[in-house]
């Protein structure tokens, strides 16, 4: 059944406004997605009706807050096909990756070991591993890209060796939109004896994720990329690994017993959830997860493919525009350069026309260096964008070019 985009858009209040005197055309979804009313209501409802601290409840409000919090965890576990004790609630992708880097990488690696990433990675999936290498003597190996901006999987297989202890790769590139065949690469990594982490930040909002099908040991993502609140996310970890890993953030909630001589840890998932969590954010993410699961995700993906197809076709026909990253398998990200214009100027001139995009290195400085560019202008689409908005992007770009 085809998607009723207007009915979908009606659920996202932020879209229905003017900016700089023009109707908002929000095309910065790779940075963060907008929130449906049900998510906004869930957060507001928590504060309005049951706001209290969770776990070890001793009263009605805390009981109900805990129930909502743990129901969200159960929904997230089902969303990625994991057990609830394998779902660690975090601030987001960055925190999830740091947890694995600190509690597994820093604990287990030594000189001579290697960590294998790809040239597409976001800083969140580069710098934590650099830190591990600096402290353990391990070395970072980087899988190069093909001309079209996709990961060179042949090179990946060649870089894999008995020295590879951790493989960390993004499922979707935030800067180019390239989709990496993570299940294939994870299988090869596991056969080589490496632990595997997948950065799913740019995947979860676009299509269903099944961590069993991918086969990875860890999977990190952020709520704000899948129509949920900011400051909340998930790290999936295989139970046997999480059980064997020490925590790196300690304090309340994550303990079983504390004495001045020694402390013992709480059971999973709480061992890795110190302090008071982002309760409202988690409840909001639970609402986003349930909402997304109620949508026809095939229809959503088909619509997004149509948006990208239209944007790519118009970009190829636009004189002086160079697409950066044209992989055969992409999600709705269009990174480009406009002859004679710095990306920042293009972004500013588009904003003056109500079109919101992102410009710069997109937290992928090494990638931009390898591409020999300072950055790009990036339009990124989501389920509530329309084909008319794609047209408006290029109408606005024609105006930008007339100013140059
Ligand atoms: C692939 C990828 N990994 C990790 C992160 C970090 O996620 P966070 O912990 O929720 O911040 C991002 C955020 N990407 C972007 C954030 O703003 N523009 C972006 O492209 C990302 O796209």
Describe the structure.
There is one protein chain. The protein has 404 residues and is α/β, with parallel strands linked by helices. The relative contact order is 0.16. Helix 4 packs parallel to helix 5 (127-136). It is 40% helix and 17% strand. The site of the ligand Cc1ncc(COP(=O)(O)O)c(CNc2co[nH]c2=O)c1O has 18 residues, from helix 4.
Characteristic terms for this protein:
alpha/beta, 2 domains, Aspartate Aminotransferase, domain 1, 14 helices, 404 residues, Cysteine_dSase, Aspartate Aminotransferase, domain 2
Query: Which ranges are low-confidence, i.e. pLDDT below 50, for 5 or more consecutive residues?
Result: none
Beta-strand proportion: 15-25%
CATH class category of the largest domain: Alpha Beta
- What fold name goes in the CATH topology slot of the largest domain? Aspartate Aminotransferase, domain 2
* Residue share in helix: 40-55%
The number of distinct structural domains comes to 2
Rg on CA atoms, Å: 22 Å
Biggest sheet architecture = 7 strands, mixed
The number of distinct helices, counting runs of at least 4 residues, comes to 14
- The average pLDDT value, as a whole number, equals 97
Distinct ligand kinds: the ligand Cc1ncc(COP(=O)(O)O)c(CNc2co[nH]c2=O)c1O
Write down how many β-strands occur, each being a DSSP E stretch of 2 or more residues. Answer: 17
- Gross CATH architecture of the largest domain: 3-Layer(aba) Sandwich
Ends: how far apart?
44 Å
Sheet with most strands: strand arrangement: 4-10-9-8-7-5-6
Net shape: globular
Function: Catalyzes the removal of elemental sulfur and selenium atoms from L-cysteine, L-cystine, L-selenocysteine, and L-selenocystine to produce L-alanine.
EC number: 2.8.1.7
Family: Belongs to the class-V pyridoxal-phosphate-dependent aminotransferase family. Csd subfamily.
Cofactor: pyridoxal 5'-phosphate
